Amino acid sequence: MQHNSFGYLKRLSVWRCDNVVHVIPSHLHSCFHNLEELDVWGCINARVIFNINDENRFTKASGISRLKKLSLDALRNLEHVWDKDPEGIIGLKMLQEVRVSRCQCLESLFPASVAKDLTRLQVLEVIKCWKLAEIFKKVREGEGTTQESVESVFPCLTTLTLYQLPDLKYSIHCSKKEVILTTLPLRPFKI
Q1: Binning pLDDT at 50, 70 and 90, where does residue 8 land?
Q2: Which helix (H) or strand (E) holds 150?
Q3: Confidence category of residue 29, pLDDT binned at 50, 70, 90
Q4: For residue 5, is it within any domain?
Q5: What is the pLDDT of residues 148-178, one digit of tens each?
Q6: How many CB atoms lie within 10 A of CB 71?
Q7: Tens of pLDDT along 39-74?
Q8: Pick from 156, 145, 150: nearest CA to 178
């Protein structure tokens, strides 16, 4: 596939593609530099949305940096949005809406390194994800993070919807301390 095959694509909808395991494989990240909306629904075998391999973890990629809306629904075998921490190669500074529902195997939504980029996030909706334990994957001993405070993570958040998440710990972890969601700046949240 040519490197500029999807250069003008602004919206990508992947619906009921049962053979897809990695929705956006690592070698295609830089092809989607104008992508603003990603909608993935009903892909039975999807395990990963953004595949990160060891080669592209250590190089800056320009792809997916304009993503504004991410919608994931009815992905019963989805294990990871990112299979490895992208550590800065995927910038999500434009991301405004994240809607995730009915992803039964998903345990965490964002890796720790992505947290600092979510300065424009307005809507975070997570519904019926039975195994989801963390919004941000907990920083393990020896791993670094650039996350400084909850206020810097969600400065524009206006809608937070968390529904039927029996394993959610209701916390955001950042560098050896736990921040409870109630310490977020007061705004009109839907919970």
Answers
A1: confident
A2: helix 150-153
A3: confident
A4: no
A5: 444 456 789 999 999 999 999 855 544 434 4
A6: 16
A7: 999 999 999 999 887 665 445 544 678 999 999 999
A8: 150
Domain count, the chain: 1
Could you tell me which residues are beta bridge partners of residue 163?
127
User: What angle is formed at CA 140 by the lines to CA 149 and CA 119, rounded to 5 degrees?
Assistant: 30
Give the C-alpha distances (Å, rounded to integers) separating 182 from 26, 41, 131, 150, 187. 36, 31, 22, 10, 11
Give the domain range for residue 112.
11-183
Identity of the residue numbered 89? I
Determine, yes or no, domain membership for 103.
yes
Characterize 75-112 residue by residue with b for buried, 16 or more Cβ atoms within 10 angstroms of its Cβ, and e for exposed: beebebbbbbbbbebbbbebbbbbbbbbbeebebbbbb
The token pair at 47 is 């395990």
Q: Three-class SS of residue 89?
A: coil
The total number of residues shown for the chain amounts to: 191
d(CA 128, CA 102): 5
CA distance 29 to 98: 19
188 within domain boundaries: no
Contact 187, 157 (CB under 8 A): yes
pLDDT in tens, 117-131: 888 999 999 999 999
Q: How many CA atoms lie within 13 A of 89 on its CB side?
A: 22
